[in-house]
Amino acid sequence: MNTISKTKLAANKRAPISERTITLLNAQSACRCQFRGCNADLSKDVLTNRKVNLAHIAHIVAAKHDGPRGNDPMPVEDRNHISNLMLVCMVHHKIIDDKSQEADFPKELLLDYKKEHENRIAALTSISAERQTVVLRMFGRIRGNIVNVSGNEVSKTVFESEGRYPFYLQGTDQIEIDLSSLPENDEHAYWQSAKAMINDVLHRQVFPGIEKGRIKHLSVFSLSRISLLAFFGYELGDKVPVDLYQKHRDANEGWNWQTSGQPVEFICTTLRNGSDKKKVALLLSVSGKVPENEVPLMPDEGYTVYEMLPVDVQPGRTVISTKADLLNFRNTYQAFLRQVERVHGSSAELYLFPAVPAPVAVICGRELLRGVSPVVTLHEKNTDTYYPTIKINQYDTERILN
Which domains does the chain have, with CATH numbers? Predict the structure, then answer.
């Protein structure tokens, strides 16, 4: 080879990236693709689950001047520095290195991708063990539609909202109460089967985990029938701390609680004093107004009827949007239960007519004190009237109303 050819080869040869830099880049990225929205695990094959190194290292500013973003003033000798490198999958390496797409992926954007990813990894790995949580998802059919929430969305939400990370039990991502296989009807068998499925998961996975100390905190994501959510809350009780999440109906459409805004207060008013001290009804007008003419017991003057609703705002689907809103509801509901116990006695029966979001329904069951709070008959809306579904807080908890 002549001298000119050797000189040309040396000029085209790219300086190698040091092993130390490669190790640090793998550590800072947790061996996951740093391209925004990908986050692929680069340490194993998804199809076979075999351990394999799938990581590629991409230059933000190309190693040579003729590469993508290579005309940047960054000195060539600095371009193998870790600050100019991204760990990516093969697909996104090809995109980053495609000269024809250079305008779509400028230096500043790729630096943002790298910074976002590494900041997230740093934050996640700095969380202490006591910030772990076990995720419980409960979902089923609502008006014929199956509703659910993805595992990635759950993990993102618990981290962003509470600075927690999911703790996996026995190799599972989370505990599931899947009621979607049940036929959606209002027959005796539907409620019976749903209650049995809820209790099966609680007694097979949740309660043993609590007793063994493996479950110290729960994060609950739920979308199901209101009566089943209240029943779940009652059966779960207060054995461990619980964070409740809600699918929001604002422009965000996510599960994160809003962090700003004036907290909504709630008030409980008496609509009518009844002639029978033991007959009590509560209209929960939170996500919507419960019309009195759709409550079948209203013609019976024996019932004392209360209504709980937000203060200074109309009931609606976005009333509960912050954790403070949820806490204010809980406090008002607790005060109402203590009032019922004091005025009507523990032998009273409370007829509950709810128009509430999912976490409020869970609270309605979870805040009942066994043997102290009244027996509660839950009701569901059907076309233009409410009908009884499940009784909770009684000795025979398996009883289902026809």
Answer: 15-125 (no CATH), 130-245 (3.40.50), 266-392 (3.40.50)
